[in-house]
Amino acid sequence: MTRFALEANFDGLVGPTHNYAGLSFGNVASANNANRVSNPREAALQGLAKMKALADLGYAQGVLPPQERPSVALLRTLGFSGDDSTVIREAARTAPALLGAACSAASMWTANAATVSPSADTADGRVHFTAANLCSKLHRAIEHETTSRILRAVFPDESYFTHHDALPGWPSLGDEGAANHTRLCGAYGERGVEFFVYGRDDLASAPAPRRFPARQTLQASQAIARRHGLDEADVVFAQQHPDAIDAGVFHNDVIAVGNGNVLFCHAQAFVDQPAIVAALRERLAARGTQLEVVEVSESEVSLEDTVGSYLFNSQLLARAPQSGGGMRLVVPQECRERPAVWRYLESLVASGGPIRELHVFDLRESMRNGGGPACLRLRVVLTEEERKATHAGVWIDEARYASLTDWVTRHYRDRLALDDLADPALLDECRTALDELTRLLGLGNLYPFQRNA
């Protein structure tokens, strides 16, 4: 018998050091906005507003806390010494790019936090998490230990949840998390098809991008599928199209998004796309589900407009039956500002297909750092028992939204230039804020400064 389950979204809370250091080569928005002055307070409030709006629509919406930044531990590993203030000042003086990496708030992109397989798909009937090693970028490769600690605190019950440490940070095992993973299914509580997209096969010759690096490897995706105990018959691996990577599609979720039995993608998303779609269709059909594919051609929306608008980095959410079923698409304001993209979206909703409703959000502060609505959230399918076993303090409701909004307003700066990262007071501000946040959410001592006290 199929158990009832729902898909919960856990959004990353933008951290107090949100800045535009341009650290992510291959991410066009990150590069184009390098050195701008950021507004961490506005970025966090915009993200919270999206969480609250989706909770108000009836979706299970959680929040994941940011990481401790600046990472003094990273700077000490790289040879800086003295007290924390001295370490920060010396890094600013002699290696400002390293200080930028140590201050990155990129953990807000929780689509990169981990890959998640629901209990309906796994051999042991538990929800499996593998934290992403993110080894292609220094500023992200330092996240996974704290990410694992956060996920274990949010999903603590070992009878329901299995947590795997990140894969070794070797080039052949580059893993970018759920940004390259999609689950397709009938009902959420039914066994589904897990769709892994990789940029390169590190052990074989294959088409490769020429301009930007391919971050996810086939070997990492295969290892995660094995760790999670997935049946080979319910897994599909696909290579991301090299031309898309070279256009700035650094993760699959910038060019494709799926939910339930719907896959929404660009025509240049995958190598040998017809064969990939056929494989997905066949595996879903074996589960009694018909795949619906909404494929956008280059003539409808170019790769340039795809990257510039983050059209596919949208949240594809199932609507309740009383709302008429189908899907709603949560898109960033940038989609409305690109005429070709907005024209396409209006025609999409009017077409009578599976995507029947649009919701537009202003996430400009985080968008400028290279991620849209889908980058900000980690999807976790949960049964009712698993939801009850999830830490109660992270669910967004009226009271939690109000407390987090107040917390952000009191602790975050409304202006942060790159020169401000050299201010040792910023570290004290962040630690004070995060110490209060862990108490507010009831998550215990998550951060190095708390654990080493």
TrEMBL record:
It catalyses: N(2)-succinyl-L-arginine + 2 H2O + 2 H(+) = N(2)-succinyl-L-ornithine + 2 NH4(+) + CO2. Keywords: Arginine metabolism, Hydrolase. Pathway: Amino-acid degradation; L-arginine degradation via AST pathway; L-glutamate and succinate from L-arginine: step 2/5. GO terms for biological process: L-arginine catabolic process to L-glutamate; L-arginine catabolic process to succinate. It holds the Pfam family AstB. The active site is at 176, 251, 375 (nucleophile). Substrate binds at residues 21-30, 112, 139-140, 215, 253, 369. Its EC number is 3.5.3.23. Catalyzes the hydrolysis of N(2)-succinylarginine into N(2)-succinylornithine, ammonia and CO(2). This is N-succinylarginine dihydrolase. The lineage of its organism: Bacteria, Pseudomonadati, Pseudomonadota, Betaproteobacteria, Burkholderiales.
